[in-house]
Each structure stands twice: as C-alpha cells, then as structure tokens.
Amino acid sequence: MFFERPASGEVTILVHITLETEYEREDPAEFEELALSAGAAPAVFITGSRAQPSPSHFVGSGKLEEIQAAIHAYKAELVLFNHALSPSQERNLESELKCRVLDRTGLILDIFAQRARSHEGKLQVELAQLQHLSSRLKRGWTHLDRQKGGIGMRGAGEKQLELDQRMIGQRIKAINKGLKKVRGQRDQGRRSRQRAEIATISLVGYTNAGKSSLFNRLTNAETFIADQLFATLDSTLRKIKLRNYGPAIVADTVGFISHLPHQLVEAFRATLEETAQADLLLHVVDAAHEMHPEFISEVDKVLVEIGAKSVEQLLVFNKIDLIANCEPRIQRDKNGRPEKVWVSAKTGAGLDLLQEAMSELLAGSMAQETLRVSPQCGKLRSQLYEKGFIENEHIDEQGFYELQVKLPQQYLDRIVQQEGAEILNNKHAVAEKSTAL
Hints:
41% helix, 4-stranded parallel beta sheet, cytoplasm, Rossmann fold, GTP-binding, alpha/beta, elongated, 4 domains, single chain, 14 helices, 15 strands
C-alpha cells in the first residue's frame, strides 16, 4: 500500500452518536462487527445523542472528556467513530485526544486493504485510500518552505503539503492507467463469452450474506469464506452447467454495506462492471437477519449507482437452516416467473430449486421439440449434448438423428436457421392442418 496501515489488535474505543438530524442512521451492531473484522480489540463502546454534530469535534465537550477518560483508563491507541468525519473534525479530535482517530469510511478502507489479494484488488484499494487521504494531508515537517530572503534561506519553493499532493496525484494517475488496462481485459473476456453464447450470473448482496458459501456450493470451488464482514474482496469467475440451459459463468463479487464509501464504488467500478454487464443477478439475502429488508434496499441503491438496476434479479434468501420450520421453495410473480428462492448454502437445501429458477430465467421461454439432424451435423449434436439439451434420440431409416430436445427458444431458432436442423413437430402440425382442410 502507498502508506502504512495500523497494526491489528489495537485497544480501541468505539463511538456512536445518535443524531436527530440524521436521515439514515448507522447500525451500532454492524459498526462493532466492522471493528472486529479490521482486527481491533474494542475496550468500550461510548454512545450518546445530539441534535446535530459539533462543527469542530463532532461531539460536545462533555462527550469529549468521556472519551479522553476512556483512553486513559484502557490505554487505548485508536478511537473509531461510526460516522463520516470531516478532515478538520478528524484533525481536531486527534489533537485533543492525543490518539489516532478514524471514521467509518477510513475503517472500511482499512478492512479492504487487509483483504485485497490480487494485483487488481490492491490497485483498487490503494486508489480509494489515496482519494480519501488527499483531503486529509497535514504538514508533517517544515524543512521545505516557500522561498525567503537571505543566504541559505531559499527553500524549494513548495510546501511539503504541495509536494505530497503532487505525488498522490501522480500515483492516482498511474493507478487509473493500470485499472484502465484491467477494464480492457475484462471487456475482452466478456466479448469472448458473448460470442460463445455463455451467460454470466453475478452474485450480489449485503456483506456476510453468504455469497461465497453459495458460490462454492454452485461451482464446487474453494473460495475463502468466513463469518466476518468483507471476507471476499477479489471477484472470482467459475463455469457451471445448468440443466435445460447449458454452461454459464458465475461471478462472486464484493459485498455491499450501508453508506458504502463513494471512493470504493469509484475504485471498484472495473470489478462492479461484471455486475452491470451480467445476464442475471443472484441477490443473496441473509434471511435469518432481522434487518434483511433494509439490507435489500441498501444493495438496490448501489446497483442503481453502478448502472445494474435494469439487470434481471433473482432474490436468494439464504441461511434458512437458521429459521425454524422454513422449507426450501420457489416463489413466483403474477406471471409465473421465479422471483424468490429460499435455500441454505450451508446444508445445500434448495440448491436444485435455485438451479431450476436460474435456468428458467436465463432461458426465457423454453421450447420442447423433436429435431431431425443429418449425419453430417455431428458437431451440432455434440454441442446439444454438452449443453444438456437432448432428452432422447434415435436414428431413422435414412440415418438421420431424431433428437428430442428441451432448450431456449432463441437457441432453437438460431440452430434451425444457421445449422439446417429441421423441427419435426412443426412439419407434422402443418401436415395435419392440410389433411383437415
């Protein structure tokens, strides 16, 4: 990383202030989970309420003294605020408390810095960190200053702050150049999948909803999973085979959270484009969490921000093993299309229903026909078998294959037009109609 991250395991004071003017309030329990995910050792959780934040220190003088007392009592090294602090508030608090202070955005950025493993993930996190840091630069030393009169007093002509800003600007430019290259590689991969007619399914959802567990179940992968926020940061792609549809690509993506820092959305835009360009979104929901309706709303907000709201979405209510008397099932809308699927990634319950719903939504209208294919079309027959479209077959007296197939209507139309396959059902239907006339 461009600058050092604090070591984990620090004794930490957590601060949460309920503001009357706050339209959307942060969840204190989620904040504590974030602190633990970052490796902090919370000593005490200080809460309070105010009509509005103090412009200088965010908290009032009485609460500031309470935080100071807690720092001395527990020998704390860090104070975390469950709010977005302005640069001046952060500086004033550090000056007053004689201790490092971090707001909610800085805490989430630190977790991302710990989780990044791939080169792309590290670049994206560093970009977000630098964008956040650029507004929080402080003058560290005075050996560089503006030019003065007198021998030996002519400085470099720039303040240290200006040099830092220039270096950060150059590094941001270099990272953006690298991410542009990554974006081009992803675009190339998407075009290849489109030419091969392979659909992309993207897993989205609130952090710790069980996306990676579900991904591992669907793809037989071994992606890292843990009961903590933002366990997955680097996106992973795997190929699966869906019955009555064929091959598809499943993408596991970073989890969302309420008030996801704007810097992260911008920095991870290259990765999140996989979501915006997907054919189907599996919106994974922790059905056992009492706040899951609010989590669904937060995820939908991020989907709007990244341009993915128009992508077809299937709600997957996960962790039904934690809910009493909850059975796996598919819920359909008024048109009979799958809308919600209730599953357990931990036990595997309902995964067959999920695959059925995914195939149905990706395929659109399914056609069940008998195709007559010439012996020279062995490649087409092989492809139909590979995609799982053939249910039965036999060879007629002329040596032609008669294939009983169930496949997407659009795929059937294409192979009839381009591959010369003949639909026997339609031919028989026309013959019957002529006889009737």
